[in-house]
């Protein structure tokens, strides 16, 4: 007699954690409201001349997202710190009138800590966006803004990255006083819930045979393109490279040929229109163009163009997890990777 298999296929950790994102954002915005309002008042009273971000991996992609928010809404230049300057070369830094935004899931990497300590000693105001409030990075900051994402076990960060992006929007809103984005931010949890219901199976089907590809964004969506490319490498072993739609028209266009996959994040603004146009131009060269946008191949949630990328990222995470499983891989524990990377 045949034996029936009654085993239950359990959701991956990656799936569970990205599903928590709407509740994480709600919890974080509520818990950090007073601290972020006070930070906004401080930044208006004594505006920094420059913002420096300190992060690696997914957190650094959240920092790229913040760069476009801060520079478009406040006009303050944003630069990414190179941690090796402090951790390897021990070079002095100039940080007068500098806001340092340190972003990390674990808050334990030695190179980030060294960078924070060097900037703080040089006079920077250090704000840490960290998921572990007891971490060394949290203790080293002038102001701690916990991400409130809860324990994240999957190697591929999802909810902590979304939480960092939401916190960065809240900082920019409090600093700039932009009422339009402030109102939109209150809708972000619902945008995320809707995003997690969208069907991107067309993308997972098209990417199943891929071993290399481009991921396009521009403006607010460029950091999301960077993050998506990293996740495709981590969870699906696809050599995905992120580009601005403006930059990819130069040398990188040369390698686009018949069947070359392109995933494009097209927001509902001028930058998004350029992303979509570039992806369609690539399709004329034979590329398989997958456009995530209101007029694209992959459905997206409508909303403010500055917040759309966060919702797109949630949908993408769900698709990447399904693609990884369909390839016979484990998205929770990619070979050779660890949850916490401690670089010197």
Report what the structure shows.
- The radius of gyration is 20 Å and the shape is globular.
- It contains 14 helices and nine strands.
- By secondary structure, it is α/β, with parallel strands linked by helices.
- It has helices spanning 13-19, 21-31, 33-45, 57-73, 83-87, 110-121, 136-140, 159-176, 179-185, 188-195, 201-207, 222-236, 270-283, 308-326; strands at 50-54, 78-80, 98-104, 125-130, 143-146, 212-217, 239-244, 261-265, 288-292.
- Helix content is 46%, strand content 14%.
- Helix 4 (57-73) links the parallel strand 1 and strand 2 (78-80).
- The strands form two sheets. It has a five-stranded parallel sheet, sandwiched between helices.
- Residues 1-8 have low confidence and may be disordered.
- The longest helix has 19 residues, at 308-326.
- Helix 4 packs parallel to helix 8 and helix 10 runs parallel beside helix 14 (308-326).
Please tally the helical runs, counting DSSP H or I stretches of 4 or more residues: 14
Write down how many β-strands occur, each being a DSSP E stretch of 2 or more residues.
9
Radius of gyration: 20 Å
Summarize model confidence as the mean pLDDT.
93
Order of helices and strands: HHHEHEHEHEHEHHHHEHEEHEH
Terminal Cα separation, in Å? 60 Å
Low-confidence stretches: 1-8
Q: Provide the structure class.
A: alpha/beta
In what order do the strands lie side by side in the largest sheet? 2-1-3-4-5
């Amino acid at each position: 007699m045949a034996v029936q298999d009654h085993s239950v296929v359990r959701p991956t950790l990656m799936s569970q954690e990205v599903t928590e994102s709407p509740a994480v954002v709600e919890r974080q915005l509520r818990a950090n409201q007073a601290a972020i309002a006070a930070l906004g008042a401080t930044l208006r009273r004594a505006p920094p001349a420059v913002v420096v971000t300190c992060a690696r991996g997914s957190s650094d992609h959240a920092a790229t997202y913040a760069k476009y928010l801060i520079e478009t809404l406040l006009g303050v230049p944003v630069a990414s710190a190179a941690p090796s300057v402090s951790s390897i070369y021990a070079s002095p830094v100039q940080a007068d009138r500098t806001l340092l935004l340190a972003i990390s899931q674990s808050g334990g990497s030695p190179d980030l800590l060294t960078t924070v300590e060097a900037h703080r000693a040089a006079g920077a105001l250090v704000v840490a966006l960290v998921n572990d409030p007891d971490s060394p990075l949290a203790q080293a900051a002038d102001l701690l803004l916990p991400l409130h994402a809860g324990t994240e076990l999957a190697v591929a960060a999802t909810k902590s990255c979304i939480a960092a992006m939401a916190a960065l929007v809240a900082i920019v809103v409090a600093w700039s006083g932009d009422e339009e984005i402030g109102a939109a931010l209150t809708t972000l949890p619902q945008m995320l819930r809707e995003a997690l219901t969208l069907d991107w199976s067309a993308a997972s089907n098209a990417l199943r045979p891929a071993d290399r590809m481009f991921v396009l964004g521009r403006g607010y969506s460029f950091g999301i393109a960077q993050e998506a490319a990293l996740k495709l490498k981590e969870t699906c072993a696809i050599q995905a490279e992120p580009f601005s739609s403006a930059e990819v028209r130069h040398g990188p266009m040369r390698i686009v040929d018949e069947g070359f996959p392109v995933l494009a994040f097209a927001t509902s603004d001028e930058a998004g229109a350029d992303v979509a146009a570039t992806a369609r131009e690539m399709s004329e060269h034979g590329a398989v163009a997958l456009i995530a946008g209101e007029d694209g191949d992959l459905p997206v949630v409508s909303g403010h163009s500055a917040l759309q990328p966060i919702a797109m990222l949630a949908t993408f995470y769900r698709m990447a997890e399904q693609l990884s499983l369909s390839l016979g891989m484990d998205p929770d524990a990619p070979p050779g990777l660890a949850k916490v990377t401690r670089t010197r």
